[in-house]
């Protein structure tokens, strides 16, 4: 059948289209009031806080296996927290006291910072970038005074450096290299150059030189499994794609772990797909900011029907931008596997607002 995906790339595109249509229908069928968005963001925030906390706890318990949930779901934590923070000034404008909710949101953010940082250092980059972008968008949307003064920026950088330093010290005191930020940098320094050379020398317009991949002569020359949806999804549908499963997972680290996403997507799908992906990200961000401006105009004219959607858009746009920047330019793993599903969902959550605005 024509609709049955024949490659990893086709499967990714089909799932992306399905998610986009589903989210667009959902956003137009369900009346996303401010109270409903607030409730969903609280549920998501609390759930991810508990999930990340349990995962971090498993690091210190013998015999327990950690899962690094911050990779696939880190941007969803940004979605939850920024959506809550965006809802606060809206509630204040209608006379609702937000002191307790604000305190609870900040507490969740602190816990996520600590447990997420223990779990994976790359999460901290995503997390702090998301908070900065989110707070900036909120300040512009509500015409607030900018929170980014020189003093606060210096303080923020100091906190980040202190956090990484504390993790390194903790890793040495507990003899747990997995906590060390320097170990990650050393691995990249040792292996990244060879990975970059592999990509540059073997990438073509629509894939790569077949013999350059792990699969050797049997490689199809594109969609070789370095970039894919979760393996469980592929196996569930019985799709005959090349996948790195079991002990073979480490074999794709040469692309997935050591390189930014622009290299990974270029190598597995070709330069054309990489350029189209970058163009799509720019399009999503442009659409998001245009719709956000439309929502702000409606709110300032006294229309409160879109408050929930505006808060949701601020959160989803922030999460999308953060994941796109980290995944495409820092670490491919942040937009691969389950994280790729999250990325599709956030993209759909932004673009879905197009119909909402045009319908009015």
From TrEMBL:
Q: What are the transmembrane regions? A: 12-30, 37-61, 73-91, 103-119, 125-142, 154-179, 229-249, 269-289, 310-331, 337-357
Recorded coiled-coil stretches: none
Signal peptide region: none
Tell me which domain of life the UniProt entry assigns to the organism this sequence originates from.
Archaea
UniProtKB keywords: Membrane, Transmembrane, Transmembrane helix
Q: Does the keyword Transmembrane helix apply?
A: yes
Which named protein is this? Uncharacterized protein
Q: Which organism is it from?
A: Methanobacterium congolense
């Amino acid at each position: 059948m024509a609709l049955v995906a024949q490659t990893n790339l086709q499967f990714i595109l089909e799932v992306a289209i399905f998610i986009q249509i589903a989210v667009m229908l959902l956003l137009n069928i369900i009346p996303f009031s401010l109270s409903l968005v607030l409730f969903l963001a609280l549920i998501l925030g609390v759930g991810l806080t508990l999930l990340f906390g349990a995962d971090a706890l498993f690091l210190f318990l013998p015999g327990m296996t950690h899962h690094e949930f911050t990779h696939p779901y880190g941007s969803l934590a940004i979605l939850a927290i920024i959506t809550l923070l965006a809802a606060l000034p809206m509630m204040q404008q209608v006379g609702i006291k937000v002191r307790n909710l604000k305190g609870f949101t900040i507490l969740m953010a602190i816990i996520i910072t600590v447990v997420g940082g223990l779990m994976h250092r790359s999460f901290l980059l995503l997390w702090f970038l998301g908070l900065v972008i989110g707070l900036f968008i909120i300040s512009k949307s509500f015409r607030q005074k900018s929170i980014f003064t020189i003093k606060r920026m210096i303080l923020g950088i100091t906190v980040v450096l202190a956090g990484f330093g504390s993790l390194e010290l903790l890793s040495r005191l507990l003899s747990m290299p997995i906590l060390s930020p320097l170990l990650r940098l050393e691995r990249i320094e040792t292996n990244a150059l060879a990975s970059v050379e592999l990509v540059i020398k073997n990438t073509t317009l629509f894939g790569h030189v077949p013999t350059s991949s792990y699969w050797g002569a049997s490689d199809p020359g594109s969609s070789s499994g370095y970039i894919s949806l979760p393996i469980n999804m592929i196996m569930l549908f019985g799709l005959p794609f090349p996948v790195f499963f079991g002990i073979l997972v480490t074999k794709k680290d040469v692309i997935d772990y050591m390189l930014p996403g622009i290299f990974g997507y270029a190598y597995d799908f070709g330069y054309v797909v990489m350029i189209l992906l970058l163009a799509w990200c720019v399009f999503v961000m442009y659409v998001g900011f245009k719709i956000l401006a439309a929502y702000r105009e409606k709110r300032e004219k006294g229309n409160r029907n879109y408050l929930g959607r505006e808060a949701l858009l601020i959160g989803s746009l922030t999460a999308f931008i953060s994941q796109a920047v980290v995944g495409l330019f820092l670490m491919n793993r942040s937009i691969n596997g389950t994280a790729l599903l999250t990325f599709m969902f956030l993209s759909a959550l932004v673009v879905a607002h197009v119909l909402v605005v045009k319908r009015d």
